[in-house]
Amino acid sequence: MLTKETVTELKYRGDGAIATLIKNYNEVSSVKFILDNLGRLPSNFNPDIFYKLLAHAHSAIRLSAVKNIGKLNDRFDANILYSLYKNENDTNVKREIVSSIGRQRKITNKSLLFEFLKDNDPKIVCQAIRALLVFENDSDAIERLKSLINHPNEIVSSIICKEFFVKENSADTRISHAATYQFLKNVVVHADVLEALSYVPSESVHLTFTSPPYYNARDYSIYPSYQAYLDFLEKVFIATHRITKEGRFLIVNTSPIIIPRISRSHSSKRYPIPFDLHPYLVKNGWEFIDDIIWLKPEASVKNRIGGFMQHRKPLGYKPNSVTEYLMVYRKSTAKLLDWNIKSYDQKTVIESKVPDGYETTNVWKIDPCFDKVHSAIFPVELCKRVISYYSYKGDLVFDPFGGSGTVGRAAKALDRLFFITEQDKDYYEYMKSKARQLSMNDERVTQFLTLEEFIKRSKNDANRSDC
């Protein structure tokens, strides 16, 4: 019986025992089992059997053979693997060949690695880049890598950009990455968001969570055209990008919207807002991370399926829209998430850990909320999930379209800070009334400011060092 113990015992004999074993168990599954369970090879191991298997008809055997050859480190001829590479059709085998040659770290393999840079498979190119980066003092290798900055694959070009062309962050560094400015803490500004943001320093906000006004769906969101609506949102999220800390998150809650038909002789129009907005965000420095689906009970949404239920005629199917999107983006950076996490002290990291009961999928089942003042308010549970998953205690959470202020109230409940802008006077006054009810015994009283008051505070506080 073929076992791992048998393979381990025979590989140390040094008399071709493994080759004999493979000859005796020559079906594909058995040969692969032997090759995959060899583990670390002894220094006296005869690798001839691996080279013979490079011509095997089954790609899985060739792949395992290449992996074992790679374990020999400097004891194999890279040119033999390169010859296989040139005639190999299986991309996994080719990738393993590049990886094995790269692990030798031999400058004599440089010309082979240059050839791999020409491959159409971006993963092979990335493997070759990784191998060539070892030769950091070789000007020929470095120049060849730098030339890939205009590579057609975005992953390849981003690696080269990070390694050779990213400059130190030139943004305002008067405050630490984990801190923010005093004049922004727990503030609601009654103003146009773009006007208010022009007075906010760069790199001030840790998280933005918002639901933009829907295109021409309500009185407070009337735009001359859909393109004008998208242009406005682009400006808002460009400004938001500037004030966001490096590598931190933007979560945008949107969904397609229907503009009703004006008469029975016309059709209604459905606008795919989250999908149309996405290219603008990516173009302006936001990296797409995740899509989260907010799933609502069917009884809570407008009934669109009623007509179809009566006639059942194809082409007339219109399902009830029970989902909205939470599109998750991160401000583009060459730095990993660990860099952000390490900017906090250990006490903050521990106290900010997400408790048990967190959501494990990207489908969140949460009931919507309704209010007589604001018809599309955030559920508190939705806000709390986003804020707890994407920020630390003490972080500043921003909502450019404050509405009823749920983001601010959730942030405060989770020991975060908040900064909100809201242009509509009714919503602004509504937030003030809610704040009076909630903050009677709360020392962290929310500041409600006009644009003029906010500008004055920004000029007084922005240059202070005790932020």
Describe the structure.
The structure is a single chain. The chain is 43% helix and 13% strand. By secondary structure, the chain is α/β, with parallel strands linked by helices. It folds into two domains: 4-165, Leucine-rich Repeat Variant (Alpha Horseshoe); 182-461, Vaccinia Virus protein VP39 (Rossmann fold, 3-Layer(aba) Sandwich), CATH 3.40.50. The chain has a nine-stranded mixed sheet. The longest helix is centred in the middle third of the chain and has 18 residues, at 226-243. The protein is elongated. The termini are far apart. The model has no long low-confidence stretch (mean pLDDT 91).
Strand and helix map with partners:
Elements: H1 4-11, H2 17-24, H3 28-36, H4 48-53, H5 59-70, H6 78-87, H7 91-103, H8 110-116, H9 122-132, H10 139-146, H11 154-165, E1 187-190, H12 193-197, E2 205-210, H13 226-243, E3 244-254, E4 257-259, E5 269-271, H14 273-283, E6 286-295, H15 306-311, E7 323-331, H16 337-341, H17 346-351, E8 363-365, H18 380-390, E9 396-399, H19 406-413, E10 417-422, H20 425-438, E11 447-450, H21 451-461
Parallel strand pairs: 1-10, 1-11, 2-3, 2-9, 6-8, 9-10
Antiparallel strand pairs: 3-7, 4-5, 6-7
Helix pairs in contact: 3-5, 5-7, 6-7, 7-9, 8-9, 13-14, 18-19
Number of domains: 2
List low-confidence stretches. Answer: none
Shape: elongated
Q: Which value, in Å, is the CA radius of gyration?
A: 30 Å
Binned strand content = 5-15%
CATH topology of the largest domain: Rossmann fold
Task: Give the strand order, joined by hyphens, for the main sheet.
Answer: 8-6-7-3-2-9-10-1-11
Q: Mean pLDDT, nearest integer?
A: 91
Distance between the termini: 71 Å
Class of secondary structure makeup: alpha/beta
